[in-house]
Amino acid sequence: MYNGGKIITGLIIFVALATFPFYANFGKTVELPSELEAEPDEMHLGNIPLVNMRSEHMKLLDQWRDEVVRGGKRFIEYDGDEYEKSLQNGCLGCHEKQEFCTKCHTYAGVKPYCWSCHFAEGEEGLL
Amino acid sequence: MLDKALTGSKKYWTLVIILLGISGVGVFTYLHQLKTGLGITGMSRDVSWGFYISQFTFLVGGAASAVMLVIPYYLHHYKKFSKIVILGEFLAVASVTMCMLFIFVDMGQPMRIANVFLYPTPNSILFWDATVLSGYLVLNIVIGWATLHAEKKGTSPASWVKPLIYLSIPWAISIHTVTAFLYAGLPGRHFWLTAIMAARFLASAFSGGPALLIILALIVRKYTKFDPGKEPIQAVGKIVAYAMSVNVFFILLEVFTAFYSNIPGHMHSFEYLFVGIEGHSKLVPLMWTSVILAAVSLFLLIPPGFRKNESILVFACITVFISLWIDKGFGLVIGGFIPNHFGTVTEYWPTIPETLITLGIWSIGFLVLTILYQVTVSVREELGTAKSEY
Amino acid sequence: MKIDRRKFLKLTGATGIGLGLSATDIFTKGTVEASSGHSRVSTAATRLAMVINIGKLKTDDDYQRIIDACHSIHNVPTIDNPKHEVKWIWTDTYKHSFPEQINEYHPEAFMKKRFPLLCNHCDHPPCVRVCPTKATFKRPDGIIQQDMHRCIGCRFCMAACPYGSRSFNWIDPRPHIKEKNTEYPPRTMGVVEKCTFCNERLERGEEPACVESSNGALVFGNLNDPESEVRKILNTHFTLRRKPSLGTMPSVFYVIGGEDYAG
Fold this sequence. Notes:
heterotrimer, B: mainly alpha, Formate dehydrogenase/DMSO reductase fold, globular, C: alpha+beta, Alpha-Beta Plaits, 4-stranded mixed β-sheet, two-stranded antiparallel sheet, 14% strand
């Protein structure tokens, strides 16, 4: 039985197909659905310039959840008021999940797994 | 050399396809578990580890066979093991592969498994276990491959292989010790909280692993031109005999301590396993099967006259293997959880999906083993050295 | 894009009620944890603890109210199959709660009582010792906290906890949550969870939910403050802890003597 070549070709095709989801989005540039309404140099909660929020918001969330869950520091000062560093009670206090986060994520092709736990106001989906 | 895995007899391909089929069923069932959760297994709030972790625990023992051949061959220059050392090393590769798969399928959040290394936690034994297991896997792949490669070219292995071989000896001891520590350091689990847990693991590993090796070597002899020889098999048989005796002795020590001290917590798990508690006795028949098989195996292994007869030896090895599989691959882990911390009993029995996944992993392991053995045997058939001179 | 700047929760007014324990208090004062010689007693500035006056829990309703308060606030699912159950606080008999302190001749009324059981927030927690990712860890104030984002679901902590306080999510909990509290995230399949002493409420200056709903049967406070209410009760009443011989040093105490505390 000397069909080794065929088997190896088969294997390569299989691996290529099986890993398709991982590189399907690779290098794709994403058209985001909307423009900023506020001034781009205005600061966002967490003291990040608004222009950078698109690329920085996941880092902010990561930082927050560590500070809250592991550090017990739950509140943040912003504009002289105290806010809760929270996904559902914080971000979603200003932003609507479906209209804001999900809409953009659908365009960008990301599916954060956060919603398998965190509630989004009034809806139950996992997106 | 791997191309040798692609050429083989019809029997080889039939075996490969059967094993692939069973693994496929296992993988498919695992995808189902991934979607619906570990609730499809028989595990529960009280018995929070089941078949997967106990198979893992048992298979760490399978990796032992290697060191029981490496020590005589490399440290004592017992040349008769020259043909079968590599079978031991490749059995270790297959066993450790299965171990890792069993840990993986037991995780509730498998996609986060990298956290074990992203947030290294030296006080956790599981962290060390993951470390020593992956190290042992790499060691045996490298050593086995390098020695076989040298054999093929008719040279002796490269000089860097020797230190790795020596390193693999304490490393093999460490995988058993660390795995025993997973259990032996937990407060309130009296069945596991015993200082000889690691020693018991070593004894059962040094009997179960070599017993499996004898069975495998004889299967290989039957179906290929490869012949490991009579004397090496006898020598391994002796190892099985001694190690199994020590293993049974250690278990009896535990029974004495529990029952002579008469401390309830120490007796409960034994009572559950061997007579049942308040009518809960699912494991009782299995455990007695294990005891009887252990007794039979000792009866057949200890007198040299019986052991010298190869058919009796194989039969004894099969009894050793099954006895230990029940004791370690079932009773030890499950028994530690019963009764629970409230003194009540929740029983455990694997479900069908759980069994399919378990079978799938075993057959992935055997697939790895079949391929590695096929490569070894083909290399030797080509060289005309498939027959042992002993 | 719809954004309403006024919609977010303002929490400034909420701090400062209840215990007088603010988040900053807990985290600045309680940073040293040391034990000297053979003493296993923590010398941290803050070590949060709970005292449960069994005598004050009289009717089934007294128990159920405590459990419901906790489970509804934390979105703990109600799962009928006991094998897949998730619980943060529940009750059991004396015999099951204190299996190593068996005494058949305790007063009959006492033996019939049920004991609320929850995570003991041990001073020497085995679950923290075994966790391979530091997903469960001890805070400086003594709370044994879990990071749900890091848990890999290996269940080593369940094997290690001698009190059966930990629950694994064997199945998807979402469909089994009775009333949803959208301010606290539920958990998902494949992670382990347990009581957190309501750290999220403490940080807002509130008492744990079970304490608040217990009509004074449950008392919460700083064990290492000699003036605290928990210490006053411990000083004047006989209390039990679960499985003391294991040396885990639980922070949950059960009052079993004294007049209004008697079984």
